[in-house]
Design goal:
Largest sheet: 8 strands, mixed
Strand content: 25-35%
Strand order of the largest sheet: 6-7-5-4-3-2-1-8
Radius of gyration: 16 Å
Oligomer: single chain
Length: 213
């Protein structure tokens, strides 16, 4: 059975909020995934710099406190990947979507993507936006298959002589005129539920690589 986002149910999948005592766990998973999937795409030194910057426990704790939602995806009780996303006035930013490499090809990445899209729609957000390294061709193909369209580029120096060079992709999930009030109400609801909620979800499709760098 498919839902309004074109996703099929995947048995044994649930989403739950990252707990404060799991900051080191998400850092360790990120390191495994990045070193497996980005080696050869960006320099090793850049991988290590970005891991240290983006996944420092203090950085993640600050994001959680500011309202960024971090969630584990669990499959049959085992952590399989994670997402982080944020409700903004204009829509939802999908900051991170990562899946353990040995689980690629099972539709789980698509499941994660559709989960965020459903949450965005619940917030009244009109779209989900994300960034993908322009060299990550597999991820770009997968997101395009999922209905995401190019809306711009983001090229920024990050220190150490390195540059983040991303395409910006977006998919509409709400209706025109959903309005700021709906997004504000959704943001307030996300803050109220951010203490340890979980959601079972589904999806089947073709996201087989991490989403963005």
């Amino acid at each position: 059975m498919t839902d309004a986002f074109g996703a099929r149910d995947v048995a044994g999948v649930r989403f739950r909020d990252l707990a404060r005592d799991e900051l080191e766990d998400v850092r360790e998973m990120a390191a495994r995934i990045w070193r497996a999937c980005y080696r050869g795409m960006i320099p090793d030194a850049q991988i290590e710099q970005m891991l240290g910057w983006m996944y420092a426990p203090g950085t993640v704790a600050t994001e959680l406190a500011s309202g960024v939602r971090w969630e584990w995806m669990e499959v049959d009780g085992r952590r399989a990947g994670y997402v982080s996303w944020e409700v903004r006035r204009e829509g939802v930013d999908l900051h991170k979507l990562y899946l353990e490499p040995e689980l690629h090809g099972r539709g789980l990445g698509q499941c994660m993507l559709r989960h965020v899209e459903r949450r965005a729609a619940e917030c009244g957000a009109p779209w989900v936006e994300l960034r993908v390294n322009r060299a990550n061709e597999r991820a770009l193909r997968a997101y395009r298959r999922a209905g995401y369209e190019w809306v711009g580029d983001d090229v920024r120096p990050i220190g150490g002589g390195f540059v983040m060079d991303d395409h910006i992709l977006r998919r509409r999930v709400g209706t025109e005129g959903s309005g700021d009030a709906g997004v504000r109400a959704g943001r307030d609801g996300m803050h109220r539920r951010s203490g340890g909620g979980e959601e079972r979800s589904g999806g089947e499709g073709g996201i087989r690589t991490p989403g963005s760098v």
